[in-house]
Design brief:
alpha+beta, two-stranded antiparallel ribbon, 2 helices, elongated
Length: 60
C-alpha cells in the first residue's frame, strides 16, 4: 500500500488487512453469503490543505 505515498493507506498494515478480511468473512458467513459475493475496497483520506481521497478496489 505504500506505492502511492499515502499516509492514510500506509496506516492499513498487512495485519490490519488480515483482520478486516477475517471480520468481513465472518459477517458474510453469518449473513449466508461468502467472499465470492463481495468486493472489499479500501477508502482512505489524507487530510491536509487539500484533502485527497484514495479508493483502492479489491484492496483486501
Amino acid at each position: 500500500m505504500t506505492r502511492t505515498g499515502s499516509v492514510a493507506l500506509q496506516a492499513v498494515s498487512p495485519t490490519k488487512r488480515a483482520k478486516l478480511r477475517a471480520l468481513a468473512g465472518a459477517f458474510l458467513g453469518r449473513a449466508g453469503l461468502g467472499l465470492p459475493h463481495a468486493r472489499l475496497d479500501l477508502v482512505a483520506i489524507d487530510l491536509g490543505r487539500a484533502p485527497v481521497l484514495h479508493h483502492v478496489q479489491d484492496a483486501l
